Amino acid sequence: NDKEKYVLTFLNHLVSWNAATSRMIRAEAFVNLGEPKVPVA
């Protein structure tokens, strides 16, 4: 049964996690444009 191997290969190699992460960061930046980022001391 190669299903597990297929899924692991897909998740680890075919999906670009760097691209997905950068898209999420960019999307969050667009959503948060209205409120300033104030670091909590």
Automatic annotation (TrEMBL):
The lineage of its organism: Eukaryota, Viridiplantae, Streptophyta, Embryophyta, Tracheophyta. It comes from Nymphaea colorata (pocket water lily). This is Manganese/iron superoxide dismutase C-terminal domain-containing protein.
